[in-house]
Amino acid sequence: MDDASPFMAALTLILRLDPAFLSIVGLSLRVTLTAVCLAALIGLPLGALLAVSRFRGRSVVIVAINALMGLPPVVVGLTFFLLLSRSGPLGSFGLLFTPSAMIIAQASLVLPIVIALTRQTVEDLWANYREYLLSIGMGPKQAIMTLLWDARFSLATALLAGFGRATAEVGAVLIVGGNIAGVTRMMTTAIALETSKGDLALALGLGIILVGITLLVNALAFGMSRIGVRHAG
Amino acid sequence: MLNWFGALLASICLLLGHPAQAQERFITVASTTSTQDSGLFDHLLPLFTQKTGIQVRVVAQGTGQALDTARRGDADVVFVHAKSQEEKFVEEGYGLKRFAVMYNDFVLIGPASDPAKINGVKDIATALQTIASKGSAFVSRGDRSGTHAAELALWKAVGIDPAKTQGGSPNWYREIGQGMGAALNTAMAMEAYVLSDRATWLSFKNKGTLQISVEGDARLFNQYGVMLVNPAKHPHVKAKDGQAFVDWLVSTEGQAAIGQYKIDGKQLFFANAAQQGA
To answer: Residue B230, SS3?
Structure first.
């Protein structure tokens, strides 16, 4: 770190608009946003369903899903590595060391967060509006839709929590992606690589940019929810 | 409203998840951290791709892990540096013929303070014995990589089993289970000795007070080999394109390209495909 400070390294990267760097940023965003999107598509309805339904063993399911929020990324990575490897059960799809494998792994990490936070949010609403919704003759499917729509701003925060988990994560994408230059190299895996090359300034510079991007995405989401609240109110 | 939102979400998913570029012609190479961290691939691969149109996707792991990746069928070519492990890989039928490609050498790196007083020692065995007897901190890769294998062979040659001395007092032998760069970072922070391949050492940017303690001993020789994964074991292996890469590496052109790679005027790898028995 003698001749270059991390801030200079970050600035140089941004100003130079190096195509290799841009592809790393682009891939990071693409993989992470797709993973969050998939997790939302599955997790929001599942979480809401879990909130309004009552069945034997429900508490066990809730505890299990809450616990899965702490799933170690490296375990998820290893599991999908074994599944997607050519010698594994899903090997014939040839997905190992591709962005698709990274999306699948990250979606699995984000999914429990989305389900658990959705369940909690919707359950609180359900406690308040249950009688009203039932009294106006709303079926369960419609009730879930109404509750999800009503809770949309809180749920946006749940999705942002998932996004945070995915962007910060390196263990899973490193194993299933392989950190291949130009194909599966993301911000976090590039940071790990530059650290191992001893280029700590560049590594930290990439880190600063990653934090900046996360900040930007959160600011965008906040702005959008503000506009949403104004229109809804 | 929510249905509309769900549809939007789904279409974003599809849009983002769909690969932007068309299917490229590529091979996957399982290789070592030394070839990647030293920057050799950044120099070599564009030359090969330009000539053949074949993209090369490199997964950089320790030699042991790289061979395992290939055993599972997740790579088309392996390019590593531990001859006995490579020969075993071929014997087991996972690899076709092994080709010698190039060599460099290992160097013993240590802090400038030289706690074991071994700077300038020419004999690696003496140096290691001194480190062990003085209990000076030593960082081991501990990851079944080619460098780790070479380090263990050197300890064995001097009749010391460092793993057995672990946990004893003083606890001088530290296995970190990580790549070459991480080991150098750790050695730098701990003021410890560490065995490194010269290429990674020369390109390493966080040297701090570290320097070369011992070099030039014939036992520090480090040979790299390359082989195609056997298509008979894994039918999806891209045999034609993978073999093209192997052939290019040992061709006059590939060998010249390896020799041309330099950092600060120093040559990192020495091509020796023509050498008998390498």
So the answer is: coil
Q: Quick check: B209 contacting A, CB < 8 Å?
A: no
For the domain that residue A150 is a member of, what is the CATH number?
A: 1.10.3720.10
Residues of B with CB below 8 A from A103's CB?
17
Indicate yes or no: CB of A37 within 8 angstroms of CB of B204: no
Q: What is the CATH number of the domain that holds B131?
A: 3.40.190.10
Write out the DSSP string of chain A: --S--HHHHHHHHHHHT-HHHHHHHHHHHHHHHHHHHHHHHHHHHHHHHHHH---TTHHHHHHHHHHHTT--HHHHHHHHHHHHSTTSTTGGG--TTSHHHHHHHHHHHHHHHHHHHHHHHHHHHHHHHHHHHHHTT--HHHHHHHHHHHTHHHHHHHHHHHHHHHHH--HHHHHHH---TTTT--HHHHHHHHHHTT-HHHHHHHHHHHHHHHHHHHHHHHHHHHHHHHHH-
Residues of chain A with C-beta less than 8 angstroms from the C-beta of B76: none
Q: Are residues B145 and B155 in the same domain?
A: yes
**Count of domains in chain A?**
1
Q: Which amino acid is at B241?
A: D
Both B94 and B120 in a single domain? no
**A34-82 pLDDT, tens per residue?**
999 999 999 999 999 999 999 999 999 999 999 999 999 999 999 999 9
Write phi, then psi, for B52 (nearest 5 degrees). Answer: -115, -15
Give which of A207, A175, A180 is closest to A85, Cα–Cα. A175
Domain interval for residue B184: 105-220
Q: Do A103 and B2 touch (CB under 8 A)?
A: no
User: Do B242 and B202 lie in a common domain?
Assistant: no
Q: Residue B247 belongs to what H/E stretch?
A: helix B239-250
Residues B178 and B257 grouped into a single domain: no
Chain A partners within 8 Å of B13 (Cβ): 34, 37-38, 41
**ipTM of this predicted complex?**
0.83
Closest partner residue to A86 (CB to CB) among B13, B42, B236 is B236
Q: Is the Cβ of B8 closer than 8 Å to some Cβ of chain A?
A: no
pLDDT (tens digit, 9 = 90+) per residue, B164-208? 765 554 589 999 998 899 999 999 999 999 999 999 999 999 999
